[in-house]
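Hey, quick one: can you model this chain's 3D structure?
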Amino acid sequence: MSDRRTTEGAATAPSSSPDRLAATLALDEAVTRVRLVSPARAKAFELLGVRTVRDLVTHFPRRYIDLSSRETVASAAIGQQCTIQGTVHEIKLKRPKPRLTLVEMTLTDGTGTLMVTAFRQPWLMDSLSAGMQVAVAGKLEFNYGFKRMTNPFIEAVEGDAAGGGMIFPVHPATEKLSAAWIRRLVGNGLAQVAGLYDPLPLELRAKYRLMSRGAALSAIHFPQSMDEVAEARRRLVYEELLFLELMLMEEGRARTHGRVPVSHVVDGPCVAALAAVLPFDLTEEQQAAKRDILGVLAAPQAANHLLLGDVGTGKTVVAAFALAAAADTGSQALLMAPTEVLARQHGQSLGPLFDAAGITWDVLTGSTAPADREAILARVSAAEVDVLIGTHALLEDDVVPAKCTLAVIDEQQRFGVDQRAKLLAKGEAPDALYLTATPIPRSLALALFGNLTLSYIRHRPHDASRRTTKVHTKQDRGHAYDAALAALGRGEQVYVVCPLIGASSEDRDEKAGKRAAREGDEDEYVYAAISIEGDDDLACDNVAAAEKEAAFLQHKTFSAYQVELLHGRMPGTEKQDVMQRFRDGETQVLVATTIIEVGVDVPNATVMIIEDADRFGLSQLHQLRGRVGRGSLPGEVYLISASRTEAALKRLSAMETTDDGYELAAYDLSLRREGDILGNRQHGASALKLVNVVRDGKIIEAAYADALALLEEDPKLEAPAHRALAREARLAFKRAATVQGG
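Sure thing. Here's the predicted structure for all 742 residues.
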C-alpha cells in the first residue's frame, strides 16, 4: 500500500480544518453541486438512486476491466471471460428485424480477428469508428469461423491506456448516462470531497491496517491495481458493517431504556399442560430450541431471539411454549403473521392446544367484522386474552394489550423494521421472538439484527414424502402442465404460482426496480428480485388480467376441473373461502401469488407450477415448494424460467439437486450482488452497498465485536474521537430508513 493511501486523512494542521469540514459536509449536498451534473443528468442519476454527493461517491463499480492482463485474439480461450484490445477495422449498424438493431464490429490485434456484436446499442456508431483502439471484455465464443463476443463491455482506449496497465471501473449505468460519463462525474464528486474527515477512530484503522476513507473511495473507483481494489473494499465494507452494528445495538438499547423487562415464568402450569396435550413428542432439535427460548425469556434482560427452521421443521409449535410462558407469567403475548391465511391457520392449529392447556386466545385480522373486532379489543384491554394472533391488524393504535410481555413475529423477513418496532411498542419492554424459514448463517443474522441470540432447527420431525423439482423454459412448459393434468386425473390437486399475477414481465421488472436482462447477455443478468414480500406489494396488481389468466386455465388447460384465483387484493373473507374450498377439495387448481408461500397446508396438493421462477430467490422458491408433498403422496415442482440465460438456469438448477434449505440458502447468498440482503425491507439493506454476507463473515464478526466494545466504553458515542463516527452511522441509516417499513 502506498504512502498516499495510508496517510491521507490523518490529523492535519488546524489551518486546513475548515476545508476538511467543508469537504465532509459536501457529502450531503445535492448531486447537482458536482461539476458537470446538469439537471438532466441529475434526473438520470435518480434512476440509479443517486441524489447526493455521498450517493455519487458510493456509486461503486460493479466490476473492473483490467487492461494490464489482456489476452490476444489468438491466445484467448473459448468459453472464458477475457479482455482483448485491438483496432476497429470495420463497424456496421444492422436491422435484422423492424424493432431490432445491432452493431457489428470487426476488431484486429495483429494475432487474429474478433467479431463483436452489440444488440440494441445503436449509439455505439456515434462513439466508435474505424481505426480507433478499443478494449472489449466478455465471454469468448466461436462460430461461423471466427472468435466472437456478444454484448461485451466496450471501451475506447486512448492515451496512456493504449500502452497497457490501466484499470477501467465499470459503474452501473443507464441509457441516459453511459459508464464513461459516470466515471467522469464520480471523479468530479471525489474532487469535491477530497480531504474529508475519516469517521473511524484511529485505533480501529491501525488495528486492521485500513486505508483512510478518502483514499479508499479514490482507490475503489480509480485503482492502480486490483490489490488496491481489495484493500479499498476491505476498508469500506468494515465501515458499512460497523455503522450497521452500532445502529442495531443502539436501537436495541433504546427499546428498553428506562423500562423494566419481565423475567417470564417458564416452568408454570400452562407450559406443562401444553407439553402434555401435544399429540407428538418434540424432536431433540425442537427440545433444544425450546430450552434456548425459555432460557432467554426467564432472564431479567429483554430477549431478542431468532428461531431459524427450514420449511416443515415445526417452528410454530416451539414458539407456542413461549406464548404459554407469557400466560403463566400473568401477562399477554402477540403473534403476528404476514398473511391472513397464515394467521387464521395458526389459530386453527394452535387454538385447540391452547384450549386444552387453559390459555385464552383470539385471532384479529383486517377482515374481522367490526362488532367482533370491538369485542376482541375489549377483551385484550381487559387482560382476558392471553395470546392474540393476527396480521398487520395488530399494529393498529386501538390494539392496546393490558400487559404485553412477548411479541412473536412469524416470517419476520416479510415485515419492515418499522412494523416490527411498532409491535414491540405494544408493551413496556417485551421480549422479542422472531421466526423465519429462510435459513441464514450467523454472520447474516448479526448483519440483520445486531445483538441477538439464535436457535436452529435443521431437520423435519418426519421425513417428507419424496419431492422432485424440475426446471423448464417457457418453450417447454407443456411438460409441467401435462404432469399437472396427470395428478388431477389421480384425484390430486395443483398450485399454479405467479410472481405478480396479471402483470407482464416488463411490469414485473419495473416494479422490482430491476432492468430486464438482455437475452443472451449473462453480464446483464440481474439477481432475481423477490417480487412479493406481502399483500402491500400487490397494490398495483392488474386484477382483471389475473382473472383472465385464471379463466384461460379454467376453459383451456384444466377445463374438466375447478380452477380458482387467490391474490392479496381479495377481501379477507373471500380469501378464507377460496382457501377453504381448496382444502376441502372442491377446487382442484389454485392459481395464486406467493400469498401461499407460508403456512398453507393441503396434503392432497401434489403438483406446483411456478411461472417466471427466475424472479424469486432460491430460499423463497424452497418455501413455496414446501406446500406440496406434505402428506403421504410425493410432490412434483416445476420451475418455469422466463429467462434463457445460462446464469438464470444454472441458479434454478440448484433446486433440482438439493432439498436442503440451508444448503440452498448458502448458495443463494453466494450469488447475490453485494448489499442485496433478503430484500430492501431488512433494516439497513439499502445502506449496505459492498457487503457480501458469505464472503465477509469474518468482517461482520469483527465489526460486531468492535461496536459492542465501543458502546460499552462510550454508550452515546459522545467522546471527541467518536463524534464523527456517531454522525456518519446516523446519516447512513437515516437514508436507509426512507425506503423501508414495508
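One thing worth noting: The longest strand covers residues 81-97.
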